[in-house]
Amino acid sequence: MSETRSQSTVKTEQCSLPCHNAEDLVEGGQSAHILLGDQLYTLRITRAGKLILTK
Fold first, then answer.
1. CA 26 to chain centre
2. Taking every pair of C-alpha atoms in the chain, what is the biggest distance, in angstroms?
3. Is the residue at 41 inside a domain?
4. Partner of 41 for a Cys bridge, out of 5, 8, 34, 48, CB 3.0 to 4.6 A?
C-alpha cells in the first residue's frame, strides 16, 4: 500500500490540476459522497480498483 501511495505522491507533484487520492476521499471505506451545487454524487472504488462516479 505504501508503494502505491508513494507513486501517487509523485504523480500529484507532477500534476498541474488539483489532484486528490481517491483512498483519502473515501477515508478507508469504499465510497464517498461528492456535492456539486445541489447535486449529490457517489464515488465508489470497485474490488478491481476502478472508480465509478454516479449521480
1. 7
2. 37
3. yes
4. 34
Tell me the per-residue pLDDT of 38-52, one tens digit each, with 9 for 90 and over: 999 999 999 999 999
Tell me which residue has cell 508503494: 3
Judge contact between 16 and 4, C-beta under 8 A. Answer: no
**Contact yes or no for 35/47 (Cβ under 8 A):** no
Q: pLDDT (tens digit, 9 = 90+) per residue, 2-17? A: 445 445 555 656 778 9
- Determine the 3-state secondary structure of 37 from DSSP: coil
One-letter amino acid for residue 35 of the chain: L
**Count of positions (residues) in the chain:** 55
Number of separate domains in the chain: 1
**Inside any domain, residue 14:** no
